[in-house]
Amino acid sequence: MSEIRFHSGQTVPLEMHKARIVQKIRLVTPEQRLAAMEEAGYNTFLLKNRDVFLDMLTDSGVNAMSDKQLAAMMSADDSYAGSETFSDLEAKIREIFGKEYFLPAHQGRACENLISQSMIQPGQIVPMNYHFTTTKAHIMVNGGTVEEIFTDEALNITSNEPFKGNIDINKLEALIAKHGADKIAFVRWEAGTNLIGGQPFSLQNMREVRAVCDKHGIKTVLDASLLMDNLYFMKVREAACKDLSIREITLKISELCDVIYFSARKLGSVRGGGICTDNSEIYEKIRELVPLYEGFLTYGGMSVREMAALVVGLDETMDFEVINQGPQFIAEMTRQLQERGIPVITPPGGLGCHLDAKAFLPHLPQTDYPAGALAAALYIASGARGMERGTMSEQRNPDGSEPLAHMELVRLALPRRVFSLSHVAYTVDRIAWLYENRALIGGLDFYEEPKVLRFFFGKLRPKTDWPQKLLAKFRQDFGDSL
Ligand code: F0G
Predict the structure, then answer these.
(1) Of the residues 195, 263, 354, which should be mutated to test ligand 1's pocket, given the most ligand atoms within 8 Å of the CB?
(2) Distance between alpha carbon 264 and the CA centroid of its chain, in Å?
(3) Is the overall model pTM greater than 0.70, yes or no?
(4) pLDDT tens sequence across 397-417
(5) 132 catalytically annotated
(6) Phi and psi at residue 382, in whole multiples of 5°?
């Protein structure tokens, strides 16, 4: 993947791969989409994939795999204990991250469970650039609390700050001064910070954080699930990384971390996860839990085929021409949205495009779940499925009150190498139509609200008959078209 300059002077992303296997998708009628949305309780997580045209819910486990990954799956060595494929994976992790020990897990949140159980004492704090939903849940279940110490720019929707995922060093120092280093379980970095729009941190900021941690004897943990995007942004946005290879940048990052964990549903584009470290004490503690929760130490809940594909996937992650496809498509989609005046997170990050639902639907209070409403409206208008990342995705406080999210976002994930630019253009067109008709979009209300991670299973209903009115306007404007 590279950006190619057209004769007109415009720069466009150009794929450095070709599709050799394809999957048919279908676009059902807007009437069917409204019925499907009703049935799904206005929660895009509960839609059936057969009713979805462009699945932009997530990149998790749905990136396109390469021919070499598929080929590797065929020669995986199947064995409960001592599989050769696991040894290959261990060696690849050692090569890429330079860490001695590796423990496999079935996915990212499983790593969070293992790390939280072994590294957090009740009452301890985990400072971080920003939380991810499952991370926070595991930290809380283990008696810890999350302290977000992002910089002031992090929550500015439109910004020129290239590294909105950075940690504010002054806030870190102040937190340690206030609570004492013993109260800090570890500092957590999240690469390609998911919930603030796939935003990266810089290598320089990591170094500054590590220096503070060293001064106080505090450990550092990296969530590397979205590392591939963060690596891309370091290479193109950070002068000091410009002349380094992706491998070199990865090793420099790794040197600053005591523990690295990842969801291989993202990193490596398979389905699985893992933890690596040089610290034998931490390794031994976590190792005890792996057979209990995941599986034997040489598979940890992953199939050997996924492990074999992960070995190749991690290697491909070190190729700039592979990892630049995602961010460059997202930048192009962001450009098209901005051209039409649609509020969207800038600078463009990794993972997907993020619509700013607060600015899109200023007439809706956060308690009406504007991001949830916009995601539902977009599905009805286009068959594209995005994900609510706002107040619906927050957990209620222990006293039952509802925290309002910092941002109300609709995430339109672009799983890597899955969609074409015409898919992007179609989605942008339907979003632009929705923007013109935004006054028609109303709020939502829970009628089934699970206590934990409510956004996964919760069901909502529209507060008025706005979805029917939206459908009527669609028919008026688009006639018989789908
Ligand atoms: N950390 C980050 C930064 C993530 O984005 C995710 C998953 C996890 C941890 C958990 O990993 O799903 O393998 O258990 N993010 C997915 C998403 C679910 O859609 O953004 P997992």
Answers:
(1) 263
(2) 12
(3) yes
(4) 889 999 999 999 999 999 999
(5) yes
(6) -140, -20
